[in-house]
Amino acid sequence: MTHDDFAELLEHPKWGRYYVGRWEYFKVAIDIFQRLNPSNVLELGPGPHTIVHGCDIMVTPGDDQWGRPANKARKVIEHDATQKPWPIDDKAYDLFIALQVWEHLDNKQSRAFREVMRISKTAVLSFPFMWDCPRENANYPQHHQIDRELIGDWTLNVRAEEIVEIPRTGKGVTQGPRLVYFWQFERA
Predict the structure, then answer these.
(1) Are 171 and 158 in contact (CB under 8 A)?
(2) 188 has a pLDDT exceeding 60
(3) By CB neighbour count within 10 A (0-12 exposed, 13-18 middle, 19+ buried), where does 74 fall?
(4) Contacts of 117 by beta carbon, 8 Å cutoff, 6+ apart
(5) Alpha carbon distance 54, 162 (integer Å)
(6) What does the pLDDT look like over 151-180, one tens digit per residue?
(7) Cβ pair 57, 71 in contact under 8 A
(8) Structural domains in the chain?
(9) Please, what is the Cα angle at 141 between 151 and 177, to 5 degrees?
(10) Quick check: helix, strand or coil at residue 115?
(11) Single pTM value for the model
């Protein structure tokens, strides 16, 4: 994704408001992608635009409230990420990306993370960090008070190579701080 691609998302009548304040953590994932220069990438739940042009995507079967990418994916895998095994060979991907998706995996995050370690050599995940979501807010409870300990539980306490903290990007709940984690499961 380029900054121009992101600017187009902000202009989209349905998705524009949703993407306000997100460039900061997208840029971290893009920088990691550029540094690694992977041959193949799988992105989980990319919404209306992937981070990596021409990557493979894994999306929920059927209708997805977050939409499907307008830019062309190389391959679309329709599979519920909470169900294992994923229909993907071991170490099939150089990089796995899931941005602001993990908190939606219905208490099966650690199960999904095992699959990420199995199918990919590296991974980038982003998480809402310590958002205060009142009960009446649509972001409660999935995004409420996710801390480093919970992220550790979800990711089996596998040590990340890099953790980047993205500060608050606006006043809204969904513009709260985020953490971007990068793991390297297999060394070159």
Answers:
(1) no
(2) no
(3) middle
(4) 123, 156, 158, 183, 185
(5) 25
(6) 999 999 999 999 999 999 988 888 999 999
(7) no
(8) 20-40+83-184 (3.40.50.150)
(9) 55
(10) helix
(11) 0.94
How far apart are alpha carbons 134 and 45 in whole angstroms?
25
Distance, CA of 138 to chain centre: 19
Structure tokens at 179: 């953490």
Residue 145 DSSP code: T
- Cα radius of gyration (the chain): 16
Q: Could you tell me if residue 61 is left (phi over 0), alpha (psi between -120 and 50 degrees) or otherwise beta?
A: beta
Q: 48 near 8, Cβ under 8 Å? A: no
- 6's tokens: 């992101």
| β partners of residue 93 | 120
* pLDDT per position as a tens digit, 94-153: 999 999 999 999 999 999 999 999 999 999 999 999 999 888 888 889 999 999 999 999
21-40 pLDDT, tens digit each: 999 999 999 999 999 999 99
| Torsion region of 104: left, alpha or beta (phi above 0 gives left; psi -120 to 50 gives alpha) | alpha
Give the per-residue pLDDT at 17. Answer: 86
